[in-house]
Design a protein that fits this description.
Strands 3-2-1-6-5-4 form a six-stranded antiparallel sheet, sandwiched between helices. Helices cover 57% and strands 11% of the residues. The chain is an alpha+beta fold.
């Protein structure tokens, strides 16, 4: 499979990548990574720990990723230089490419750190104003507590401080809401891109997201994780944008060759999403949503707890939705048959707890597709 990192993504997300060999030698792909780290003279095939000394002591983790025993290893919040230096997150990802078993991704988060420093500076300013007010009130109290003028001055200063605090608070809240709004606009844009090409798949993603989130809530999973599952559900089939549409709508049983092309959508979805810095492991959940706990799934044949819980929940929702709705190439078997499927294979193909939660949702009428 061809692996691409476009210049547009480089510019947008500030990441640099290189290939990693089994001997822990770093094979650079262009000078960008070396220039970013300030080691432009470092030769190709140099030990990764010489270029990234932060990895000393993590050799066991690196070899686990290289051997395939671990999907990804990451170090976050790495700083280089003084206050004007850089800050980045480091990801070592198991991915076979050009004969190398892993990819090293350096994600620049300097601007994010600078923003946090700015927020902290604002908070410090508020605290400083508060201390100034306290000191001023103490001076007025020591001079003459009865002076009306002094009391009026203290009241005025207090009102100014409250106005300043309210202004800063509103700015922070507006900044947070803007970031959240932009985040969901990004998710919706990706979904709409697929909907233009395949309206069925886009609608399927939305319904799977709703059901997966309902299952997770039924399992009493924390709200933050539920939100991550919902986002992953909205994007879980985004990789089908690379699958020929005639394969997706072709009636009858597909030839093995065409079916294998469709099966690549899990990996392609991972490739599309992995460099977007979601607050949840969305890319990993998408990669594993067709794995089955008995090892019969794809793309890697993972078993049991090797599969993320979020992916196991998504797998149950995906199967139930697919069987409950009509598709371009066949009539729906119906919700009853879908529930029979996960009932028959709970604890075999599907996570037992997720399957039980889904069954209860439909059995007691706690879920509707249009909720």
């Amino acid at each position: 499979m061809k692996h691409q990192f476009s210049s547009e993504l480089h510019h947008r997300f500030g990441f640099y990548y290189a290939l990693l060999g089994r001997d822990l030698k770093l094979k650079h792909d262009g000078p960008a990574l070396r220039a970013y780290l300030g080691c432009s003279d470092a030769p190709d095939d140099e030990d990764i720990r010489d270029v990234l000394p932060e990895l000393f002591g993590y050799e066991k983790d690196l070899r686990a990723v290289i051997s395939g025993g671990r999907q990804e290893f990451e170090l976050t919040g790495i700083n280089r230089g003084d206050n004007e230096g850089i800050c980045f997150n480091l990801h070592i990802i198991n991915y076979e490419y050009r004969g190398h078993p892993a990819i090293v991704v350096v994600h620049d988060v300097t601007s994010d750190v600078s923003a946090m420093r700015s927020i902290q500076q604002s908070r410090n300013e508020v605290i400083l104003l508060q201390h100034e007010l306290i000191d001023k009130n103490s001076e007025l109290d020591a001079a003459n507590r009865a002076l009306t003028v002094s009391r009026d001055e203290a009241t005025t200063l207090n009102q100014e401080l409250e106005a300043k605090v309210a202004e800063r608070t509103a700015e922070l809240e507006a900044s947070y809401e803007k970031a959240r709004r932009l985040f969901y606009q990004t998710v919706n844009s990706l979904t709409q891109a697929l909907e233009i090409r395949d309206p069925y798949t886009a609608g399927h993603q939305q319904r799977v997201a709703h059901l997966a989130a309902a299952i997770a809530e039924k399992m009493r999973i924390d709200r933050d994780t539920v939100e991550g599952i919902y986002v992953a559900g909205q994007l879980h089939d985004i990789g089908k944008i690379y699958v020929p549409s005639e394969f997706l709508t072709k009636p009858g049983v597909l030839p093995e060759e065409e079916y294998n092309v469709i099966k690549t959508h899990a990996i392609m979805g991972f490739e599309i999403i992995k460099n977007i810095e979601f607050p949840w492991p969305v890319a990993a959940v998408i990669l594993q949503h067709h794995e089955r706990i008995d090892g019969s799934g794809y793309p890697y044949g993972l078993e049991g707890d090797e599969i993320r819980l979020e992916s196991r929940i998504l797998a149950v929702a995906d199967v139930v939705e697919a069987m409950s709705t009509n598709r371009p190439y066949r009539v729906s078997p119906g919700v009853h048959e879908a529930i029979q499927e996960i009932t028959s294979f709970r604890g075999v193909k599907y996570d037992r707890e997720a399957a039980d939660a889904c069954i209860e949702l439909f059995e007691f009428g706690e879920f509707r597709w249009d909720d």
